[in-house]
Design brief:
The protein is of the alpha+beta class. The chain has 2 domains: 101 residues, Hypothetical protein ph0010, domain 1 (Glycoprotein, Type 4 Pilin), CATH 3.30.700; 68 residues, Dna Ligase, domain 1, CATH 3.30.1490. Helix content is 28%, strand content 24%. The protein contains 5 helices and 8 strands; from the N terminus they run αββαββββααββα. The protein starts with 13 loop residues before the first helix and ends with a helix. The relative contact order is 0.15.
C-alpha cells in the first residue's frame, strides 16, 4: 500500500511530515511490517524534502538516549534519509537492543538536518554548540552533532578528546587526523513543534 502524506498533518510545516514519516516507519517495523521508501507517494511531498541532505535521527526514552544513527553526507533525499535513519536508530544502533513495542509510547524523536561539512584548518574554528564535527583518520571515524558537547558541558578541547576516543583513538588522536570537518545542523524535536503549534 502506498502511503500518501495528507495535508491534514499534526503539524503545518515540513518538519511535521518528517516526524510523521519517522513515527510511521518505527510503528510499521514494530508491527512486523516493512515500511520503506517504496511505500511513499513521493509526489505528495514538498519539494524541500526531496533535496539530498545529511540527517541524523535521535531517539530518547524518558529523556535518556535510546538510539542515534545518521549520515553526514547528503546521500539521498531528506524524506528518504529520515525513514532509513529512523529505522536504524530504533533497531540497529549497536549500543542498544532493538526497540520493543512496550517502549514505544515513552519515546521522543529528534531530527538533525545537516549542512554540507567543510574542512577545519584550525581548532579555533570549532565553536561548541554551533558546530557539529567529524573526525577521519584511516579507518577511524567519529561524529558529534552540535548539541552533544553542549548537553555534556564539554569545552572545545574536551570535545576533541572525546571525539578521538569515540573514533577509537587516543585522546589526542585528533591532532593526527586525516581531516576534521565542521558543519551546522537544524535540530528540532517533536516537543518543539507541539509547543510552536
Amino acid at each position: 500500500m502506498i502511503f500518501k502524506v495528507s495535508a491534514m498533518n499534526p503539524y503545518s510545516e515540513d518538519k511535521g511530515i518528517l516526524f510523521k514519516l519517522a513515527r510511521r516507519t518505527i510503528e510499521e517495523v514494530l508491527a512486523g511490517k516493512s515500511f520503506n521508501h517504496m511505500n511513499i507517494d513521493e509526489g505528495s511531498l514538498p519539494e524541500t524534502l526531496k533535496v539530498d541532505r545529511g540527517v541524523f535521527v535521535t531517539i530518547y526514552k524518558d529523556n535518556d538516549l535510546r538510539g542515534c544513527i545518521g549520515n553526514v553526507l547528503p546521500l539521498m533525499p531528506l524524506w528518504r534519509a529520515t525513514i532509513e535513519n529512523a529505522r536504524n536508530a530504533a533497531f540497529r544502533d549497536s549500543r542498544f537492543p532493538p526497540l520493543r513495542v512496550d517502549e514505544y509510547p515513552g519515546i521522543s524523536i529528534e531530527i538533525s538536518v545537516l549542512s554540507k561539512s567543510v574542512k577545519m584548518l584550525d581548532i579555533n574554528e570549532f565553536c561548541v554548540g554551533l558546530h557539529g564535527i567529524v573526525l577521519k583518520k584511516g579507518i577511524h571515524f567519529a561524529v558529534f552533532l552540535p548539541q552533544i558537547p553542549s548537553m555534556q558541558g564539554w569545552s572545545a578541547s574536551e570535545t576533541m578528546q572525546r571525539l578521538s576516543e569515540k573514533a577509537g583513538l587516543e585522546p589526542d588522536g585528533w591532532k593526527e587526523a586525516d581531516s576534521l570537518e565542521i558543519f551546522h545542523a537544524e535540530v528540532f524535536s517533536e516537543s518543539d513543534l507541539v509547543s510552536a503549534g
